[in-house]
Amino acid sequence: LMTKATEMGIPCGSIWFDPIVTPVVNVEANQAKPCLEFMSTLEDIVPGCKSAVGLSNVSNGAPTHLRPILNRTFLMMLMKYGLHSAIVDAFDAELIKIARGEMPEMVDLVHRVMDGERPNLSSLSEEEIKCVKTVRVLTGEILYSHSWLDI
């Protein structure tokens, strides 16, 4: 693909990759972790190319009250790997704050958990605990259920 694009004079910066994001509720076909793995290698594989995701796909089928935490956490996880663009719920004010870089402490916490840190949950706020637990679901460390935040 890249060879043909180069032959046609299409610069890498004009090529967008949109990895598949399937709902986390579909345990057998959850593509959140493979999507993250792909994003972590994209810059090495095709330097200069761009990335975009349909962010809310990850939470499709989850109860309405759980969708925002899945979407927000997945966005923070993808940001670790340089996500360029996402189709998002523009009415989710928290998600927009994350996208604008206005929640760096929460983003940092999510990235540390992705890197293997096991924070003491008793020292975290309720929102931080939700993010930590959601990282564990999205990375496949724990199995998704509608009650993952209660465990």
UniProtKB/TrEMBL annotation:
<protein>
    <recommendedName>
        <fullName>Pterin-binding domain-containing protein</fullName>
    </recommendedName>
</protein>
<dbReference type="InterPro" id="IPR011005">
    <property type="entry name" value="Dihydropteroate_synth-like_sf"/>
</dbReference>
